[in-house]
Amino acid sequence: MQDRFETGMTVRREVLGDAHVDRAEASKSKFDEPFQTMITEGAWGTLWADDTISRRDRSLLTLALLAATGNFEEIPMHIRASRNTGASPEEIVQAFLHVAVYAGVPKANHAIKLAKQTFDELEVDL
């Protein structure tokens, strides 16, 4: 498991950036340490570390799934991560258009609003 944790931490840093991971690690407590370990090993050390599909594709899938399931809180984080995964703003909006058709216009609308705000903060011209 230590290898999976180390791989996960490496991938997590590559996708989310050192600043984000450093903040998460600094705020970790005994209470949420098991959760942080699980997502580092499982999400980052297994799923995101697998190269069957590209990080760009994983980024687009993640954003679409977050929007489709109404888990909006993590959308800005994954929009910021798209700078490291290669998913373009044009591709991201296409993913959200799929959400509109298959999961509902209000969810896509909110995801697009969050994406626009985040891209604005990142000074990305849309």
Automatic annotation (TrEMBL):
Its EC number is 4.1.1.44. Residues 35-116 form the Carboxymuconolactone decarboxylase-like domain. It is an enzyme of class 4 (lyase). Keywords: Lyase. Pfam families: CMD. The keyword Lyase applies. One of its GO terms (molecular function) is 4-carboxymuconolactone decarboxylase activity. NCBIfam families: decarb_PcaC. This is 4-carboxymuconolactone decarboxylase. It comes from Sedimentitalea todarodis. The lineage of its organism: Bacteria, Pseudomonadati, Pseudomonadota, Alphaproteobacteria, Rhodobacterales. The gene is pcaC.
